[in-house]
Amino acid sequence: MGSQGGLGAPGNGGPGEGESGETRKLQEGKAARGKRRKGKRKGKAGAGQGGRGSGAEGKTQPPQAKEAAGLGAEAGERAGLGKVGEGGGSVEEGARRIVRGDEGSAGARKEAKGRYDGKKEEWRVRTGQREEARPARAQGRGCQAWGRLAGTGAAMAAATEEEAGAREPAGRPAAGPALLRLPEELLLLICSYLDMQALGRLAQVCRWLRRFTNCDLLWRRIARASLNSGFTRLGTDLMASVPVKERVKVSQNWRLGRCREGILLKWKCSQMPWMQLEGDSLYISQANFILAYQFRPDGASLNRRPLGVFAGHDEDVCHFVLANSHIISAGGDGKIGIHKIHSTFTVKYSAHEQEVNCVDCKGGIIVSGSRDRTAKVWPLASGRLGQCLHTIQTEDRVWSIAISPLHSSFVTGTACCGHFSPLRIWDLNSGQLMTHLGGDFPPGAGVLDVMYESPSTLLSCGYDTYVRYWDLRASVRKCVMEWEEPHDSTLYCLQTDGNHLLATGSSYYGVVRLWDRRQRACLHAFPLTSTPLSSPVYCLRFTTRHLYAALSYNLHGLDFQTP
Predict the structure, then answer these.
(1) In which domain of life is the source organism classified (predicted)?
(2) What value does the mean pLDDT take over residues 104-123?
């Protein structure tokens, strides 16, 4: 029976044959599962080796492929590990389930492989995009860094451009109102009709207009109409190195009387000082000396140590002028002294019998006036010093004297006691009287200061409390304009800017007055002393920024630049 069972056909065998077939199927299922597990282990080992390898095998397996392999293995295990006979099933049903599990696991593997291939392709695309994006990101970071460097460089360039903008006009803006697109000549013509306030507002529109409105051509007309701006009546610019706009700003302080007062020098005993300005130096007489001081950069103070001391007179210095690098001084001892500014050369000679009250020098000629009622003409040439060219009898004490800018004549201001006119003009070459000015002076209306403003115009002041303006082309009998001192004080000195400003020094309380020559009333008054120390203003000088007044005990300064 055993042999018969062993020789039976496979499909028609008995129970023995069925059991041996089912056993083979079980063994084949186990073998398949063992192969799958072995393949799985080989895949893992290959992945580990691929991480250490190179080329395509050295690439790390993406996580999607691992997930697909895991799903296929789980499906195969579920299909092949079903319990035989569970739920009342037979061995054949278990075998059929194993076969179906094999088929299902194969389908799952195909599906997982398809998903894996898709994921792998997607992974490859993404990896390629990132690799392509890396140079772009690196380039972007480089551009960003370059942009930061360029931004820093742009800021430095802007600062440099702004500094250079003060020296050079910026380019005209490409876009803006139609006014900015006009030709520069036409824009200058339009702006020349604007006043100072309108130009200031226009400068606030943009940087280009601010630089454009700083042009000196736009401010010249305003400066010529302003007080003490450095322009003469004929339009000559006496301070070309200073911007015109800055001078106009300071001029407003003169017009409004805004200034800061200070004392520059003091001396213990009463003096009758005289002074002159030249560049950054101030020359002032104290007793029988002339001292030279240098201004500090602000112009409102002096260095305490004098630059030079010029001596030679036995009595007080009454008057002196600066000419051709020389100081020509007149002393109370009746002598004239000549000092070279940059050396120790000094010459003095007897000129008059009494004190020499006044002196002037132009064109190599010296003229002097004295209390002895004479005026004399002297040469400045070194070989002829002390040789009198002309002696003029003035019939009166001479208080002031001035040479014409043409060097052809000079004017004397006398005490108006021995002659009806205190102002007379003399020929410089012959010493003859040319003309006299005015005819209605009261007795004693002496002229203490006189100065030429041009060859045909001059100013005078004195005991009659008037400042008079004379124009020889109009009339010599009557002055063109006059200004009266409000408190009837004697006017010791005067100074003009050659245009509209006039400054005078009074005899009481050290009053300095500013006048606008276009109007008769006084513009401003500055009393520099109190009642116990009342003193005349013996001399005054001013620049476009400061005014200096010499009194009996000190030298005062008025700062109009920084009030």
Answers:
(1) Eukaryota
(2) 61
Per residue in 75-94, pLDDT (tens digit) is 444 444 344 334 444 445 55
Cα three-residue angle 314-450-315, rounded to 5 degrees:
5
As a whole number of angstroms, the distance between CA 206 and CA 494 comes to 44
Structure token pair of residue 100: 């179906």
d(CA 299, CA 430): 43
Q: How many helices (H) and strands (E) does the chain have?
A: 9, 28
User: Exposed e or buried b for every residue in 419-447, given b needs 16+ CB within 10 A?
Assistant: eebbbbbbebeebeebebbbeebeeebbb
Q: Is the Cβ–Cβ distance between 496 and 488 less than 8 Å? A: no
pLDDT of residue 142: 47
Distance (Å, whole) CA 235 – CA 499: 9
What are residue 374's DSSP bridge partners?
A: 393
Sole residue written with tokens 């009746």: 334
Instruction: Report the interhelical angle of 91-165 vs 15-52 (nearest 10°).
Output: 20
Answer yes or no: are the C-beta atoms of 347 and 385 closer than 8 Å: yes
Higher pLDDT pick, 315 / 68: 315
| Strands 346-350 and 335-340, bridge-based pairing | antiparallel
Sheet strand arrangement including 289-294:
275-278, 281-286, 289-294, 308-310
Distance CA 229, CA 497 (A): 8
Please, which contacts does 178-184 make with residues 24 or more away whose CB atoms are closer than 8 Å? Answer: 180/208, 180/209
Q: Which residue has the tokens 């610019």?
A: 237
**Greatest extent of the chain over all pairs of C-alpha atoms, in Å:** 189
Mean pLDDT of 348-354: 94
Cα separation, 465 vs 445, whole angstroms: 9
Tally the C-alpha atoms within 13 A of residue 26's C-alpha that lie toward its C-beta. 14
Are 512 and 537 a contacting pair, CB within 8 Å?
A: yes
A 10 A CB-CB count for 562 gives 13
Measured CA to CA, the distance from residue 499 to residue 165 in angstroms comes to 34
Q: Do residues 363 and 408 make contact, with C-beta atoms less than 8 angstroms apart? A: no
Residue 203 backbone dihedrals phi, psi, to 5 degrees: -70, -15
Do 101 and 78 contact (CB within 8 A), yes or no?
yes
Reduce the DSSP state of residue 268 to 3 states and report it: coil
Q: Is 464 helix (H, G, I), strand (E, B) or coil?
A: coil
In angstroms, the Cα distances linking 44 to 48, 66, 200, 557 are 6, 9, 87, 103
Give 375's strand partners.
369, 392
Nearest-angstrom CA–CA distance, 98 and 92: 10
